[in-house]
Amino acid sequence: MMRPDDMVVLLDVDNTLLDNDRIVTDIGNRLERDFGAAGRQRYWNIFETLREELGYADYLGALQRYRLSDMNGPQLLLMSAFLVDYPFAERLYPAALDVVRHLGALGRTVILSDGDAVFQPRKMQRSGLWDAVDGRVLIYIHKEQMLEAVVRRYPAAHYVMVDDKLRVLQAMKISLENRLTTVFVRQGHYALDPKHISNYRKADMTVENIGALLDLDCSSMSGNSGPAQLARRA
Length: 234
Fold this sequence. Notes:
By secondary structure, the protein is α/β, with parallel strands linked by helices. It contains 10 helices and 6 strands, in the order βααααβααβαβαβααβ. The protein folds into 2 domains: 4-18 and 92-222, HAD superfamily/HAD-like (Rossmann fold, 3-Layer(aba) Sandwich); 21-88, Orthogonal Bundle (GTP Cyclohydrolase I, Chain A, domain 1), CATH 1.10.286.50.
């Protein structure tokens, strides 16, 4: 196994450590309760339009744009409080924080996520993920395009990237080649979409859920020991 200082473990958040699909469902249910089915659909239409414009999900930005046609609605103001005060810690996948601590035995753990500069950090702070990595959090618009900045900020002989999107893992592997071990977590709608899976190359490792990393032979992540093997803990 490589010494911890020789490795940096990069961790995605949405649908990797945190059940973002469940969060989206909860947001949709709250929207429908307060604004009806039409209002819910209107919000998601604005949300998708904004994502195409910005390149990332902006839940609060979509709410601001929705507000332009309903400036006097008190429920809309309460909806913003719902988003900001959402109990994100309750949406962590089982053993997610244990996995972060476990991977910390390999080297520095760093959150590497996409998103906006307000809601995404809030999500990590309230879930406990921010503290779990001692504030080592990077949030970009397209993280796979920011690897030079990541490497400058956290230099290492070897990197590990844990993510639910094969598209991201493939792009990072092409860039870092043998300096990166990719770990695909089969959680969330992207990871379970056959079309998404078939369009991209396989990751170096695949696990069915984030908790499975607790049983992983960590030495297999160093890039020097061949295919990953799942080992039972004594």
